[in-house]
Amino acid sequence: MKIIKQAIAGTLESSDLLVKVAPAANDDLEIVLHSEVIKQFGAQIRQVIDQTLAQLGVTTGSFIIEDKGALDCVIRARLQAAVLRACDCENLNWEQLS
Amino acid sequence: MKLRRSMLFLPGANAAMLSTAYIYRPDSIMFDLEDAVSLREKDAARLLVFHALQNPMYEDIETVVRINPLNTPFGLKDLEAAVRGGVDVVRLPKTDSANDVRELETQVARIEAECGREIGSTQLMAAIESASGVVNALSIATSSPRLIGIALAGFDYVIDMQTERGDGTELFYARCAVLHAARAAGIDAFDVVYSDINDEAGFLKEVDLIRRLGFNGKSLINPRQIELLHNAYAPTEEDASYARRVIAAAEAAEANGLGVIALNGKMIDAPIVNHARRTLQMVAASGTRK
Question: pTM for the whole thing?
Answer without folding.
Answer: 0.92
